[in-house]
Prior knowledge:
Blueprint: E1 2-6, H1 17-32, E2 37-42, E3 56-60, H2 68-83, E4 90-93, E5 106-109, H3 114-117, H4 124-140, E6 143-146, H5 149-159, E7 166-168, H6 182-192, E8 198-202, H7 211-225, E9 230-234, H8 242-250, E10 257-261, H9 265-273, E11 277-280, H10 289-296, E12 301-304, H11 309-313, E13 318-320, H12 325-337, H13 339-353, H14 358-375
Parallel strand pairs: 1-2, 1-4, 2-3, 4-5, 5-6, 6-7, 8-9, 8-11, 9-10, 11-12, 12-13
Helix pairs in contact: 1-14, 7-12, 10-13
Amino acid sequence: xxxxxxxxxxxxxxxxxxxxxxxxxxxxxxLKHPEHEFxxxxxRPYDAKFIFGPNITPIIVSPPARHALAFKYWYDVxxxxxxxxxxxxxxxxxxxxxxxxxKIPQVLIIHDLAFRHYPKFIAWHHRWYYQHYTKKFLQKxxxxxxxxxxxKQDIIQQYKLAxxxxxxxxxxxxxxxxxxxxxxKEQVKEGFADGREYFLFTGGIHPRKxxxxxxxxxxxxxxxxxxxxxxxxAGRLAWQYDEIxxxxxxxxxxxxxxxxxxxxxxxxxxxxxAAYALVYPSFFEGFGLPxxxxxxxxxxxxxxxxGSMPETGGEAALYADPNDPEAIAxxxxxxxxxxxxxxxxxxxxxxxxxxxxxxxxxxxxxxxxVSTSEKR
Length: 376
């Protein structure tokens, strides 16, 4: 079998949700099935580390697909033409878009419908493209995959998609997210937090991630507790980040907030494992991978009571309304003052994180690819 894989988000030092999902699954799928051929379709020069085995043929199809007109041209004209000589049996589209012109059967992966719930958090041209074409993508795809039951039910409700057409393939934490010793934690705190304990947020600085309300919650926590705790924010400046950077100029506790920017995996895993707690008050997520990453590191989690987050965190997290900074701050205070609660969350978190596995995810997606190809 010959499988084409859209690989445009496999970019060195820029991997985030989409890219990590593709990397973790297809690094396993391609190695487990060396008898099959994979065509990885990039839209710009790629790093050789993403060519996971000799059964992968990389091709570059330009121009880069990064705005609405480029999406249309790349997916419907350039990529189908580039794939024609390879005659793929199936084409995996992991980023919510697919080709409306190609005759190759396509497996479409949609992580969430954030654009429908929070349209103001998306650039207008991206929003228009999602709103105009998502229904057509769902109709065109032979099979649809999403990353949580919440997202599955959302897609079914919003687009009247048949239940049997959509499957769930959960994400998981990478194996490198592991607990640290006391000495290792102290080294991380010395290096990034002036030796202090810290709350951690991981994710791009983007309005949907709710950093403004987190800053308000952190202010309340500091006011109530008079603690020397810091707040570390690990993630790139993604979109509409000016409000955050301007707020920090006059923020009372600005010296206790550290913007770390985008971190390579080897640093992110250590900073996660040394945190006092993860605070992840995102307005909306299809899965919420940082929740599981922190739990696997034996770090307790405070997250939102909306979207998929309660599904991901289960009984192992504390929840708060992301629109209510005081509610977030109260959970931060609870976890700070109640060591028994914190230890209970750590124990429950290890159990919750163990429910998710990239090996299982890779096997599930492979079975979907095989069954979709056989139907052809």
